[in-house]
Amino acid sequence: MKPMQDRVEPPFWMQGNFAPVTEEITAFDLPVDGAIPPELSGLYIRNGANPRHGQSSHWFLGDGMLHGIAIEGGKAQWYRNRYVRTPIYEGAPRTLLSGLDIRYALSNTSVVAHANRIMALVENALPMEISRELETRGFNDFGGRLATSCTAHPKICPVTGEMHFFGYRVVPPYLTYHVADAAGALVRSVEIPVKAATMIHDFALTARHAIFMDLPVVFDMPTAMTGSTMPFHWSESHGARLGVLPRGSGADTLRWIDIEPCYVYHVANAFEEANGAIVLDVARYDEHWRGGPKRNAFDTAALTRWRIPPGATRAEETCLDDRSVEFPRIDDRRTGLAHGIVYALATEGSLADGVFTELLKYDLKSGRADRRPFDGELPSEFTMVSPAEAAGEDEGWLMGYVYDRASARSDLVILDAGDIGGKPVARVRLPVRVPQGFHGTWIASEPRQRGTAASPWSWIGSN
């Protein structure tokens, strides 16, 4: 046994509920406390990093594992967890050049449903199609037309049904914007001219524009040549700006808007005011990875608003709340449209501390922030689900996985979005632990997107 002073503390992503689970299970007819609303009919899936062999060099680099619950008729029909079977999962060897291959990555970050497909996503690879039962089907390269990776945060326009997304690379072209129509065909690809390779996790969409964040976490080739798995670092000289591109236009119409240096993983939403001003709400870090991504190198992020007045070359910046938050979400029906409510998780310290303390509901019109503490529990990101197309912004439910420290098991917790501090509407009891992960989505049995079939689940199918 090593002397106490020689022991190395495991990184946060290998401790507590961040630690991986390795067994894939299927459980049917799950017990429920409370009552699942009968209007809920569909599938909740969340993705996350879950290293198959129990180790990974960074929280972002474990194999993808999907955790899904099917709900129908007021019942939780089943829970499944399944690895996303990428080439790396199947044992493909890692090399320096494999990092440039968009078919060689871990699909571990999020899930999207669009145009008859469910896809597991990570920002440095092609989308990986999965079945309703969470089984891996294979990469979706849009009929050979997609030559870049796909962001883990595509935006589906609620008006047109289009899916807007981008891919970034560490070799030119560094950034490319894509649009898939409502039927799932890739119809536009536009190279966005940026001066260097940077880490770009998210972007924003409004009714008339796509907005890209060119921020100073830059790719470091010498570090990559040493075999580092996360060769990015904070740059004092790169600067920070927003690229505003009219939807449907070429790169010649792109304009750049200066902002204070910062980093952003997640955009809550963006929209346009009546006078044409563009508004973005984001979780903003003052800086990120100065000196590179050390073991626990996360600062704290605050909910922040950028506003770009018509004709401006610099954005106005307002901190909406100085609490440490992450995973901001809205009602996805408002994507690109004016929103008044943002949901987020509050953190004790930074993400690296691994302690999410409460769910916050920001009413941006009144300035009020409602809280739901999680005493003895550890929540993950919550997803907003509305009962009907015409429902209000907080008419519906929030759902997310919550880990109970006492029982060492997890539940799917369903809350009333209008009263997040009240008793849960329902708590689906799971027989296992669901590790802390990244992003989830609700896939209704009868989807609202244009170009999809009307009968329940026929638009997705099964294995």
Written overview of the protein:
- Strands 2, 28, 29, 30, 31 and 32 form a 6-stranded antiparallel sheet that branches.
- By secondary structure, the protein is an all-beta fold.
- It is globular and about 55 Å long.
- The model is unreliable at 449-463 (pLDDT under 50).
- The protein has a single domain (4-444), classed as Neuraminidase (6 Propeller).
- The chain contains 1 helix and 33 strands.
- The chain starts with 25 loop residues before the first strand and ends in a 19-residue tail after the last strand.
- Strand 25 (341-347) and strand 26 (356-363) form a beta hairpin.
Overall mean confidence score, pLDDT: 91
Residues in helix, %: under 10%
- Quote the distance from N terminus to C terminus: 48 Å
How many distinct domains? Answer: 1
Unreliable sequence segments: 449-463
Count the E strands.
33
Envelope shape: globular
Which percent band covers the strand fraction?
35-45%
Rg measurement, Å:
21 Å
User: For the record, what is the CATH homologous superfamily label?
Assistant: TolB, C-terminal domain
What's the oligomerization state?
Answer: single chain
Which architecture would the CATH scheme give at its second level?
Answer: 6 Propeller
Largest sheet descriptor: 6 strands, antiparallel
How does the helix and strand content classify structurally?
A: mainly beta
Number of H/I helices: 1
* CATH topology (fold) name: Neuraminidase
CATH C-level category? Mainly Beta
